[in-house]
Design goal:
Two copies of one chain form a homodimer. Chain A contains no helices and ten strands. By secondary structure, chain A is an all-beta fold. Chains A and B meet through strand 1, strand 4, strand 5, strand 8 and strand 10 of A and strand 1, strand 4, strand 5, strand 8 and strand 10 of B.
Chain lengths: ~110, ~110
């Protein structure tokens, strides 16, 4: 069993084109013994965003702090703490922080991407 | 894309032997389009607990509210909001709420269990 505080895990800047003021921590990864899927925690500062992109793997997301918007088929949909999001493979998506507080969410990906 | 509030999803009582005052919501499941892993949210009332058990699949957990203890190899380890836990297959585990506030965590399982 591995127990940790998420804040202890190294924060990596998200450097994909279009990303702004966003870090990611890979809190459950291969080195923890995970074989099927991995857990990351994203933190987006006010005025920050993740890249607008799509890819062949799904996301399973739980927002636990802050407020923002999620681009869904070109529309901006509000999301906040307590939202759950399933993004299927190949669907375009982007998170933006629309508040003055850091937006934080858990985002899981399959290990075979 | 599926966006929901976790509180909208049906709360099912956890009825396994040894479970007490605990509900689970399957917030991302097969009917949402998930193929590789599923997201559940557990809520344990004060004095409640999940069953002490083990099984052939792993858990990936993020605690987002409250305080409790986690049984790890017979010892009680404190956990609280902000803890991440990886429980490998076949390892015994149990969550107990040791506070006066509801303990809440996200817990993911592989679809092939």
């Amino acid at each position: 069993m591995v127990i940790k505080r998420y804040g202890e895990v190294e924060a990596l800047p998200v450097t994909d084109a279009g990303a702004l003021k966003t870090i990611v921590r890979w809190v459950i990864a291969e080195e923890d013994g995970a074989k099927n899927f991995y857990m990351r925690i994203f933190e987006i500062e006010p005025e920050g965003c993740t890249p607008l992109h799509h890819h062949a793997w799904e996301h399973e997301i739980f927002v636990f702090q802050g407020k923002g918007t999620l681009i869904q088929q070109g529309r901006e949909v509000p999301v906040c703490s307590g939202n759950v999001v399933f993004i299927p493979p190949h669907e375009e998506h982007q998170f933006k922080n629309s508040s003055t507080e850091t937006l934080k969410f858990v985002c899981l990906v399959p290990s075979q991407k």
